[in-house]
Design brief:
Blueprint lengths: L2 E8 L4 E4 L5 E5 L4 E3 L2 E3 L5 E5 L2 H15 L15 E4 L4 E6 L5 E7 L4 E5 L3 E4 L4 H7 L8 E5 L14 E8 H14 L3 E7 H9 L8 E7 L2 E5 L7 E4 L16 E6 L9 E7 L2 E7 L14 H4 L4 H9 L10 H8 L3 H12 L4 E4 L4 E4 L14 H11 L3 E3 L3 E5 L5 E5 L5 E2 L2 H6 L7 H15 L5
Parallel strand pairs: 3-12
Antiparallel strand pairs: 1-13, 2-3, 4-5, 4-11, 6-10, 6-12, 7-8, 7-11, 8-9, 9-20, 14-18, 15-16, 15-17, 18-19, 19-20, 21-22, 23-24, 24-25, 25-26
Helix pairs in contact: 3-8, 6-8, 7-8, 9-11
Length: about 450
């Protein structure tokens, strides 16, 4: 798959220095990003102390670990810089694995911050090898001063060299951000245990394993189960949770999120609660399967009114750490379902994420060229072509779709839909609609918009 090349330009490299008096000072350098005041070359988001320095250092390393790892075909290392968002009362650090199957987010909450949020916005932060080594040495008994963004931009001349990185940015990495926020919005809390119980459970998991495991919540524990069932927790690729090893000694709780009634391997979210912060890993349904192909966004991208609704909702976003659907519905005049669909569409451009712990969306602006989000999805392109070429014949609750290859497929529109194609036979809707079902749904909306009953 073709890759974009993302250029990261930093005023200097991030570093852990020592202030007069011996206090460690972590300077996380930012590159260009969008803020509440528009585009900024080196935005400043925060200066102050993190109240749990050792846990914070381990968590930042965990997010960086994910950004630098390919869990599938690990011989090819990734080298992507994590994303940071100043979100009003908190900082969020996010990354995606190079293989696209693990999404990591560190939420530094108001209780974990003793300092000043200087601005709202999103950009990348430089996490380099020397900084990683220094962070690994942070102990729990010393305060940690943190500056997100340069502290002397106003007096620095830019004639000198900057630290610049150019890295391939796979399309699937960008698409993964879009998919994971839709998938996570369907999760419920499935299990919760204390930090001690979490440590015990995670240390019993098989090492170097990509198998799919199932667990049944029993009280405050997770017991092995034979397969999917109502309330069961899926853990696909337990080796992908090894990133938690950096913070387990600081954990106060572990929470697991997933769909209520899985019928096969599904994505899941694993959240470690730490003093003043949360570290969450969201795992794809298979270690060899990235989020980019899950198809969760296709239905909302195909909606005829989606683009206009998204533009309207976008104008109302204001870097909220928690987006209230009811308030957006009132302000926009749209129904809750249309607001939710608009947020999904905005998520394909990196403008919205989802926090399973608070069961709420949040506003951010990923600093990447995501204008190709719709064009990057082959099923959506093919479905539009089927409709444009009038290859979809609507009938009573069904459709007949004629493929350019000459094959004909029967599509059932009722419920979640179904199709007679090989894609549907293989995935049974588990990775979103096939192009034939998607095209048929588009044709139905087109007819309804024309005022004809389908």
């Amino acid at each position: 798959m073709a890759s974009l090349v993302q250029s990261y330009s930093y005023l200097r490299a991030s570093a852990l220095l020592t202030e007069p008096g011996g206090t460690p000072s972590l300077g996380l350098e930012t590159c260009g990003g969008l803020t509440s005041h528009g585009l900024a070359p080196y935005p400043r988001f925060f200066t102050g102390f993190l109240t749990a320095p050792a846990a914070a250092a381990g968590s930042l390393l965990a997010v960086a670990d994910v950004a630098a790892t390919r869990y599938f075909q690990p011989q090819n290392r990734a080298s992507l810089d994590p994303v940071v968002t100043g979100n009003g009362d908190r900082l969020r650090f996010e990354s995606f694995s190079g293989c696209g199957g693990v999404y990591a987010r560190l939420d530094v909450l108001p209780g974990g911050i003793d300092g000043e949020i200087l601005g709202n916005g999103t950009t990348n932060v430089d996490v380099n090898a020397p900084l990683r080594e220094a962070l690994a040495m942070i102990g729990g008994g010393e305060p940690l001063h943190v500056a997100v963004g340069p502290d002397d931009v106003t007096v620095t001349t830019f004639d000198g060299p900057v630290v610049e990185k150019k890295v391939p940015l796979p399309d699937r990495w960008l698409r993964g951000f879009a998919e994971v926020q839709v998938i996570a919005a369907r999760f419920d809390l499935r299990a919760e245990m204390t930090g001690v119980e979490a440590t015990r459970f995670l240390r019993t998991l098989p090492k170097n394993s990509r198998q799919v495991l199932w667990f049944k919540p029993v009280g405050r524990a997770l017991r092995a189960a034979s397969g999917p069932a109502r309330g069961a927790v899926c853990l696909a690729g337990p080796d992908r949770l090894r990133t938690f090893a950096r913070v387990l000694r600081h954990a106060t709780a572990l929470r697991v999120y997933g769909p209520p009634a899985p019928t096969g391997p599904v994505a899941s979210a694993w959240e470690i609660e730490l003093p003043g912060m949360r570290l969450t890993l969201t795992l794809s349904p298979d270690a060899a399967r990235g989020f980019s192909g899950e198809g969760a966004v296709l239905g909302d991208l195909a909606s005829a009114s989606g683009a206009a609704d998204a533009d309207l909702v976008s104008a109302l976003l204001a870097w909220e750490p928690r987006i209230e659907l009811g308030e957006l519905a009132t302000e926009s005049g749209l129904g809750i379902d249309r607001v939710r669909a608009a947020l999904v569409r905005l998520g394909t451009a990196g403008r919205v994420g989802y926090d399973v712990a608070e069961a709420a969306y949040f506003h951010r602006e990923l600093p990447y060229d995501t204008g190709r989000a719709e064009a990057m999805n082959p099923r959506l392109r093919d479905a539009r072509r089927l409709v444009a070429e009038q290859r979809v014949e609507l009938r009573d609750g069904t459709a007949v779709v004629a493929s350019p290859s000459g094959a004909t497929y029967q599509v059932r529109l009722a419920g979640d839909g179904a199709c007679t194609c090989e894609w549907w036979a293989k995935y049974r809707g588990g990775r979103g609609p096939c192009k034939h079902l998607l095209g048929a749904q588009m044709a139905v909306r087109e007819r309804e918009n024309a005022g004809v009953s389908a």
